[in-house]
Amino acid sequence: SSSSTSREAEPAMNAYRAQLLRFDTDGTPLYESDGLLVVGLGTDGVQRVVDAGPYRTVAARHPQVAVTHWPDRLIAPGFIDMHVHYPQTDIIGAPADGLLPWLENYTFPAETRFAQPAYAAEVANVFFSELLRHGVTTALAFATTHPASVDAFFQGAQKRGLRMISGKVLQDRHSPDGLRDETEQSLIDSETLIQRWHGQGRLGYAITPRFAPTSTDAQLRGAGELAARHPDTWIHSHVAENRDEVRWVRELFPQARSYVDVYRGFGLLRERAVYAHCIHLDDADRALMRDTGAVAAVSPTSNLFLGSGFFDYEGAERIGMRHGLASDVGGGTSFSPFHTMLAAYYVGREGQTKPGLSLAPSRLWWHHTGGAARALGLQGVIGTLQAGTEADFVLLNPKATPLLARKTERAQNLEELLFALIVLGDDRVVDQVCIA
Fold it and tell me: Are residues 219 and 180 in contact, defined by beta-carbon separation less than 8 angstroms?
């Protein structure tokens, strides 16, 4: 939703004046203490950024456009969550001894309920409301093995005009009754769902093997063939989250050099292939992901919560493996991008081959906006508020709480302002969310 001012001359355009944070295509932050964002309706019916920059300059270029002024607020790109499980909305904060017991005791029982369309629709509704309350405008989300769960997700996203990506989970072995699918039917269902939803407005489909241990060779091979037939779809799975899981994969796929190499063998590493976690990798794995265009969805609150380990930022940067940030709810502990960015900062401090890495606040922010868009193959579409991109943006209140107000008033520069929001911010900071 957005405030509106009456306007006669250019009804197709709106302008918003506030502090303004955008990103250059390389991740350089562009900040105006008094900025103007001009948006207009594209021929496809989607609102896009027409112009942006310092208020004085941009306003002079658009004298006919009425301006909505938000003093003391910050306009920023909508956040992008690169890996989240919408069916796990209700098991956030479930106590468990680690990843595998948590799956068995909480995750799988919760997911079996998504065979019921009405239940799936109800949870999807809560999920989208939570994302938007926290300023997240795009997500790459797991559904369940049930086609009904995918339909419910996309119907909910379409109703709200959101850019969202999801797909039916593939898991035909080592899975409980009610979740385990049948190999051939699972691939037929996936193809049907691709035809139904992929590229419909702002929706995208992800071919989604849960993780290598829960798919047979035949299912993984079929997923790779689907991905080859539909190259502009996404691929979405998990890799190298937990040491027990890595050991299990070694037993199940002894011919593969590594866990990442399992996916390569089935044609599942390419542009738009997104792998959550990527913790227990070596440089050869990182280089393989870099060379194939596959990317990592870093999920720090989940990794800390489940004791899975630390993502190696230094290794990823050194090798050139692309990555972005993710909540991984329900293993993750919050929908809030602020909590995710703060957890990523902790991980940067502790979990490196060279400990003590200090991730710049604007860099953390980039990995949750434009950097995540680039990793998803959506550069130039969302995430930066550059001219021509879809106008998904958030209006943030840097004075949302007394301590935050005190801290942001004292900020000497952009990095201090962003870090105050990362450390002290939560959903109270998000005033409004504007969807293209």
Answer: no
Question: What percent of the chain lies above the pLDDT cut of 70?
Answer: 96
- How much is the pLDDT for 353? 61
Q: Tell me the C-alpha distance between 36 and 51, whole Å.
A: 8
Query: How far apart are alpha carbons 62 and 296 in whole angstroms?
Result: 41
- How far CA 345 is from CA of 8, 125, 359, 415, in Å, comes to 47, 31, 6, 14
Confidence at residue 352, expressed as pLDDT on a 0 to 100 scale = 61
Give me the half-sphere count of Cα atoms (radius 13 Å) on the Cβ side of residue 117: 7
Closest CA to 132 of 401, 386, 392, 350: 392
DSSP state of 390: B
Residues 6+ apart with CB under 8 A from 284: 257, 258
Q: Please list the alpha-helical segments (H only) found in 104-216.
A: 108-112, 117-133, 147-160, 183-197
Question: Nearest Cα to 246, choosing from 282, 208, 222?
Answer: 282
> Does residue 330 have a cis peptide bond before it, meaning omega lies within 30 degrees of 0?
yes
Q: Within a 13 Å sphere around the CA of 320, how many CA atoms are in the beta-carbon half?
A: 6
Residue type, 16: Y
CA dist., res. 102 & res. 421, Å (int): 31
CB atoms < 10 A from the CB of 251, how many?
A: 8
b/e sequence 61-99, b meaning 16+ C-beta within 10 Å: ebeebbbeebeebbbbbbbbbbbbbbbbbebbeeebeeb
Tell me the β-bridge partners of 393.
77, 434
pLDDT tens, residue by residue, 198-231: 999 999 999 999 999 999 999 999 999 999 999 9
Helix locations, 134-242, DSSP H: 147-160, 183-197, 217-229
| Helix, strand, coil content of the chain in percent (nearest 5) | 40, 25, 35
Q: Which two tokens stand for residue 423?
A: 């450390």
- Residue 307's pLDDT band (cuts 50, 70, 90): confident
Give the model confidence (pLDDT) of 328-385 as tens digits. Answer: 999 999 999 999 999 999 998 876 666 656 889 999 999 999 999 999 999 999 999 9
The answer to whether residues 327 and 304 touch, using CB atoms and an 8 Å cutoff, is: no
Instruction: For residue 54, list its beta bridge partners.
Output: 35
Residue 88, token pair as written in the block: 């796990």
**In the structure encoding, which two tokens stand for residue 165, read together?**
């990506």
- Contact between 211 and 237 (Cβ < 8 Å): yes
Helix (H) or strand (E) holding 235: strand 234-239
Give the residue from 145, 194, 150, 206 showing the smallest Cα distance to 174: 145
Q: Token pair 């943006």 is at which residue?
A: 393
